[in-house]
Sequence to fold (282 residues):
Amino acid sequence: MNMSTFIMNLRIKTRQILTFILLAFCVYSLIIFIFAALYFRTQSIGLTPYSKPYTETVDFEKAVYFSIVSFHTIGFGDIHPVSTLGRRIVMLQSVISMFFTSIFSGFLVFFIIKRPNDIFTTKKLYIRFRNDQYQLSIRIGNKGRTIIDLKSRFEAWTIENNTRVRAFRHEQELPDLERILYYDIPLDHAHHAKFKQEMLDALQKKIRLHMKFSFIGNDIKTGEQVAFAKYYDSEDLKFGTIFLNVYSWNENGDRKNFHWKNFERIEPMDADLIRIFRNTES
Fold:
């Protein structure tokens, strides 16, 4: 990663963190003022004798002060609950402060070191018949920022005598992953004949085929590297033709009407085409 990309990455991360901190501070302030109002309206706190005489009332400013001290469990002792209701409010605020601190810390770490898990693939591997040929297909989805410079790998292997034996390996560069991307391996290609036969054996349950699809790329805005991997086996092999649309296009060429529920849906393959594939001999 070059210096300009690093600086851009740092700026975006900093902006995200500052936005989160600002939001957290607003929530924190809201909690403080809500409990300050509760203490003030219920008159459930008072000044400790050694601090001030009982005759001095606790105004809203002192209620805010006590709310902050209670939230952080500091406990100076100059103001204390004077009723059962006051003690219950203090306990409630202490519990909320514990959860707020834990959640704030966790999400802060999340924003600093991790991109959201917004990349996914179909749960099944599909043998499709498209453009007069059979191909092994995976549909890839992305609900986050575009990923560029994708390099993918597909591997298949069997387990023999407690040893992993490679059956197939295919590497290729992919287009940018904006929302939807298709990963296709042409099974009728001469170089893939052995793998096709192993898939046929797996469909007939003669062997158990294990497979893995993975890729690495770069977030288009931050430049940070993104990695993804998905494992499949023989039970995940299904037949199909055309995937159902996830979105449509408007007159400006922008995507609209997203229906992610269609992501896994595919039109069934004709029974004759399935029979032809199953009866193929390499």
